[in-house]
Amino acid sequence: MDDLSDSGDPRRLVERGYDHVAHDYACLEGGAKWPRMRWLKKVLDSLGPGSSVLDLGCGSGDPADIEISKEHTVTGVDISQAQINLARQNVPSGCFMHGDAGSVEFAAASFDAVVSFYTLEHIPRKEHGAILRRAHEWLRPGGLLLISIEAGEYDDAIGEWLGVPMFFSCYDPETMKQMVTEAGFELFETTVETQVEQGRDVPFLWLFARKA
Q1: Which domain CATH number covers 77?
Q2: Does the residue 54 lie in any domain?
Q3: Is residue 207 one of the residues assigned to a domain?
Q4: Which of these, 26, 47, 86, 95, is most buried using a 10 Å CB contact count?
Q5: Considering the entire predicted model, what is its pTM?
């Protein structure tokens, strides 16, 4: 991967990239079963009917927000307007906002759960701790947090992804676990699982926690 130093604003890079590949990304999972829905089920099985769920980096809303919306209220945020347009089509009952998951604001105690799939690695890692602390504030007492993030270590790098330049930034899994607990969460299930993307195994760290 290339260094970001001469490549401009990472947010605009991610926004342009996902606008360009929105439809290709929707097909990326293909016939391979990603672990996302299995982990989401853990959250949904722990929520009462009519709970409020925030999806940071919601993408097209398919399949996670479609499933959430069956029994709960879903709010989604994504930096790509193309993805938000798809989410509004796929989940008409949801509330979807074009915005940056790294800086969006909500009132304290607004949600029963916050989920974020394949998103944090596209935000500068120096901001991850602040995002976790804000998620803690947004959750009601005992609220749930579910995150997946690439299980690598990239210090603000750019690589080609689905034919477009894409920004990547993440800490190693042990550091990420520590950041979750330091943000005020009780971490009660975590593992690294691989999923297939374009014939390539990609490891992701999964973190399931509760607001302490």
Answers
A1: 3.40.50.150
A2: yes
A3: no
A4: 86
A5: 0.93
